[in-house]
Structure formats: C-alpha cells, structure tokens
C-alpha cells in the first residue's frame, strides 16, 4: 500500500515536473524578448506624451507615410535610446534641398552626405556638423548631421502636418542611400546601425 503510494507520488512528481519545465522555458523566452525591447526603447526612453491629430491640413511630406492622419495619436519623445558603437535606428529617405537645415541656415544638395537625427540624438545641436558612421548589410557611410528630426512637435501647420519623428530615426539624403548601394526603389525605410565618429 505504502509502496504504491510512493510510486504514485514520484510519478506525479515527474509528470508535474515535465509539465512545469516547458512552461518555465516559455516564460523565460517571454521575459527575454521583453527585456530586449525595453533595452532599446521602453525602459531607457519613454514617450513624454502623445499628439492626437485632428483634421490635419495639407501635408508637406514627400512621403505620405510621414503625414498625420485624422484621429490618430502619435507618441512624442524628448529622449532617444543611448548611443553605442552599434546604435539601432530606422533610416528614412529625406530631402535637404527644400528648406534650410537647423544646424546652420543652409540648403544642402541631396547628393551631399547629410542626415537629420531624432531630437534626443540631435541633443540640442551637440552633434551638429559632426560625422556619424551608418552601417547596413556590411556597408558603411560617413554622413554629416545637419538637422534635427523633430520628435516632439507634429501634426501642426508649422511642421506641415507631418507626424513627429520617432525616438530612433535617421533621415538621410539620396547621397547617403546611394553610398549604401541602395538604388531608387530601395530608398525608403531601412534598419541600420550607427555610431559617433571621433573627431581626432
Ligand atoms: C497619399 O497621397 C495621395 C496623392 O497625393 C493621396 O491621394 C492619398 O490620399 C494620400 N494618402 C494618405 C494616407 O494620406
Ligand atoms: C564604420 O563602421 C564600420 C562597421 O562597424 C567599420 O567597419 C568602419 O571602420 C567604420 N568607419 C569609420 C570611419 O569609423
């Protein structure tokens, strides 16, 4: 009787262990992926608020995707994720030839290797006219920071009803895209990494 009971006990133990194990593995995976995403945005850089877009006027963006849409809400960011030797960013195509940039009131030709950075990375202009090294698919290009990609203001007439920039964006000229061996129909949105280039 006792033997049977202990056999029953150990069987249930093994059974329940084997039931728990896969669950634990699942939980670990979930925690792992949550940690991954908090590393880049959630933990280190939270939205400072949201802009709700109401009946936006005529949008000046070249790319429709950058226009505010009626009834949509957009996060705004004062911060950007920390800059490392391999900072993850989303790169978008941008023109610098239609308005003066904010580092110096200058119009750039789109063949020039220039970019704008999200507000946190622009860092009140401390990266102005400095080079950053942008890498994707094993190719790299050095580009000059000439403008801010505004992560705080958006969806107003002053900014042409464009939505605010994300926390981790680079807007790059055609020249930059070309140096990364991107041809016309590939110039749009791309995941890249970047780093500061020391001026020494
Ligand atoms: C994008 O632009 C086209 C042409 O200018 C316009 O007809 C369309 O409504 C726009 N789409 C959005 C989502 O704004
Ligand atoms: C740019 O980054 C790439 C990839 O990390 C590296 O191989 C290259 O040497 C860097 N270029 C400069 C000028 O720092």
From TrEMBL:
Give the location in the cell.
Secreted
Q: What is its main location?
A: secreted
The region annotated as signal peptide is: 1-25
Keywords, alphabetical: Secreted, Signal
Q: Which GO terms describe its cellular component?
A: extracellular region
Q: Which Pfam families match?
A: KWL1
Keyword Coiled coil listed = no
Secreted among keywords: yes
Sequence similarity: Belongs to the kiwellin family.
Can you name this protein? Uncharacterized protein
């Amino acid at each position: 009787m006792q033997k049977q009971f202990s056999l029953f006990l150990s069987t249930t133990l093994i059974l329940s262990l084997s039931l728990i194990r896969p669950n634990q593995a699942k939980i670990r995976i979930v925690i792992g992926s949550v940690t991954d995403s908090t590393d880049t945005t959630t933990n280190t850089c939270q939205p400072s608020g949201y802009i709700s877009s109401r009946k936006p006027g005529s949008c000046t963006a070249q790319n429709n995707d950058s226009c505010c849409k009626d009834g949509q809400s957009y996060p705004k960011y004062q911060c950007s994720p920390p800059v490392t030797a391999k900072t993850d960013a989303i790169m978008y195509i941008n023109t610098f030839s239609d308005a003066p940039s904010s580092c110096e009131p200058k119009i750039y030709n789109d063949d020039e290797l220039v970019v704008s950075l999200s507000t946190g990375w622009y860092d009140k202009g401390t990266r102005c006219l400095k080079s950053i090294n942008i890498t994707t698919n094993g190719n790299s290009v050095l580009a000059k920071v000439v403008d801010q990609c505004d992560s705080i203001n958006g969806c107003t007439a002053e900014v042409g009803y464009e939505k605010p920039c994300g926390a981790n964006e680079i807007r790059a000229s055609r020249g930059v895209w070309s140096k990364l061996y991107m041809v016309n129909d590939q110039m749009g949105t791309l995941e890249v990494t970047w780093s500061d280039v020391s001026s020494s």
